[in-house]
Predict the structure.
Amino acid sequence: MRHVNYTLRPATIDNAKPREKAYALTDGGGLLLEVLPSGAKTWRFKYHLNGKREKVTIGAYPAFTIKQARDRHEELRALVERGQSPAKAKKVQSVAQKEVESRQLTFRAFAQRWLEETLFYRSGGYVAQTVRWLDAYVYPAIGDMQLGEVKPGDVLAIIKARADTSVTAERIRVIVQQIYNHAIRNLLVTTNPAQPLRGAIVRAPVEHHRHLSEKELGTFWRKLDEQGAHLTTIAATKLLLLTMARKTELLRSKWPEFDLDAARWDIPAERMKMGKPHRVFLSHQAVSLLRQMHEFSGHGEYVFPSVFRGSVPMGDVTLNHFFKRMDFGVPDFSPHGTRGTAATLLREHGFGRDVVELLLAHSEKNATVAAYSHMELASERKRALQYLADRIEVLAAGANVIPLRAA
């Protein structure tokens, strides 16, 4: 190889100031120092090989001194003289290094990185549930294994252990698959042990929760106060219907979320299934119930505190057991069925689908409808929930239940 007459001097490099665009200081033989707008300075080697122009990065200055950069430049020039590409050799070396790193990186450590790098936009509830599943089901089995050593059989054992809850098992498989997809994108592994297991656990048919007819709803409402349950349980059950909220959204509600004078309940995004804040326009009956609850629990944080531990909200199981023991002629009615009951009643009485979907806080998949619904339809939602409360009162009084459309 020809000897290179290098030209750069330390003073020249140190005095080079950043500009609006990156520029290069030529040292000789294709070696140059690139000065970036940020002020950083990086050694690079540009060369021609097989009729193509290529470039490879040597390292940052002053971490790579002038002497070190030139020594490395001579090594790279030697590769070019032998017809080898320094850029491709560096890429191969980088992939090999990543594979070494993956063999030294545990699944647990990379899963923590995945949580931080990919779930930052998800709701707090979604992230918390994901962490719970990882802690309970995944980490005990493969958490301390090296990332690149986990096999499909290891993942299969995890999801088979949850086969009795097929939805949870599939969700766990998807989480592991997403973690490995992220590892593949970062060149840490080349295969995904969860991918081939799609369909390994047969999901149970989707359960459609039983909803009540108007006659059944009237009977249900009349029977509520005859069950001998605590007033918080009765009030929570009634407000499930009157607000059309999900059980967890209601039971974990806090007093600062309510403005009873304005008849509004604003549920924060982190407690909503869809991760978006939701406003409930309270009917007169709902406000009255909440004022009664305020006399009981207004001194605390939660609207529906646990009877045994007032510092925590009522547990989901409390309402589940209450619904199971109620005897009003419909043995399979559950708390979730209240949403379907209210939605069906409103649709049968002339309220539009867009209004009902907003009341249910469903995520609209149709872009055109979503744009229209963005207006919130506040007046229609207020009218719908007041109509629902009034209609329930009529039904509970035993009046004629022939459907009559809302005016």
The radius of gyration is 32 Å. The domain at 105-197 is CATH 1.10.150.130 (DNA polymerase; domain 1). DSSP finds 16 helices and seven strands in the chain. The longest strand covers residues 52-61.
